[in-house]
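User: I'm putting together notes for a lab meeting next week and I want to include a structural view of one of the chains we've been expressing. I don't have a solved structure, so I'd like a prediction I can at least talk through. The sequence is below, exactly as it appears in our construct file.
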Amino acid sequence: MQIGMIEGATRIIGKCQGYLGLPLRDELIACTVNGEGTPSMVTAWQPTPDELERLNAGASVHLRVLGVAHPPVMVEVGPTPTD
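Assistant: Thanks for the context. Below is the predicted structure for the 83-residue chain, given as structure tokens.
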């Protein structure tokens, strides 16, 4: 997956740590566990042609979390590009 520029990005994280830099959008969501106004960070990812081919063939999306503790996460498909 290639890092995408999320619509309405509010900051870029990780660059000072030696990573490529990840644009993200800070937003508040209504979470069924934590309630209204739960802080969240949204990023955008674009599959490579090979990855898209594998996804269309039924491959799953894997989320890798660095470290030994797993934070709460959500994985979803973004809106269809309008360009």
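A couple of points you could mention at the meeting. The first strand starts at residue 2 and ends at 4. The beta strands are 2-4, 11-13, 22-31, 35-42, 44-46.

User: Perfect, that's what I needed.
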